[in-house]
């Protein structure tokens, strides 16, 4: 099974300048290739990897600066661009701006990569044109190296090895009849149908205050100045710690959940669409922009998508199945009788069923997680029907009517 191993590099001044240069060259190749693809698409034509790789070889004869980087990392950049354009569309792929993109490039040929352990805490890797680079041996390599990716985060450089650890995905989970539903929220990151609450703060009050001061300093600094670069570096250090905490939380939570459940059900949430800006345009300004900004920040802070990826990654080792179910009405449906009403959820944390003869009450997030588990990957109708006495055309009740005649008085 293929997995990643990431280590922090300890590069000297010469190597630091080289990896910075490699990253800049890869960025230029990406942007040039993307611009060429967009021009072709505007004319109704198509450009792919093969002719671009041939043109890159010709360009290296005319532009000596392209020869500074190893050929195969430039070819890999064009391959990544080709995959991005095919997956997302040419005009939806982003430019790699120098101010926003962190340098990153991949050495795809395992035959040109050598890794040695120097001692208890240090190891080294031999990479094309970089030579031997030392890295902190923070965990065992655990397999045969397939490729290596060098990237920068903040002021530090890292190397990530793609290794084959020799493990095989189990055909069946150790507890095959277990299932769990997960409700992701903005107050609590993840709540399971078993009643477990998974959450932790990712940023401290001191870091929040410090980051706000740095933002004010950044706004007053001159573009291109040394003071601005130092301010950005300080901001990146803070956000780097926050990102590491979030990643660690998602990995530990995912490992805990999949170890106990053969089926993990999640809401099919489009995080990018849900966290889109509401600012609108010059002709049509947005509404409730400040409220939407706060909601976007809360969604991104909890790491919904990162938790989903962590679950899918951890599930490979336990044989768990991760499925996504429609999110419609999971927070308004009673997990005991199936009654759906907008007034069932009294507040963010309290759910109380309004159906006659039911009166089921529990934490709203736990109730939603049980509905997600009950769906279990099966399609949910547009009107959120899970009750046997419910008309498939009947919409849920509103606050104005207070009642829906299409719902049976009792689930039994």
UniProtKB/TrEMBL annotation:
Residues 1-43 form the Transposase putative helix-turn-helix domain. It comes from the Bacteria. Residues 380-412 are annotated as: Disordered. Residues 304-372 form the Cas12f1-like TNB domain. Keywords: DNA recombination, DNA-binding, Endonuclease, Hydrolase, Metal-binding, Nuclease, Transposition, Zinc. One of its GO terms (molecular function) is endonuclease activity. Residues 168-276 form the Probable transposase IS891/IS1136/IS1341 domain. InterPro entries: Cas12f1-like_TNB, Transposase, Transposase_put_HTH. In the C-terminal section; belongs to the transposase 35 family. NCBIfam families: guided_TnpB. This is RNA-guided endonuclease TnpB family protein.
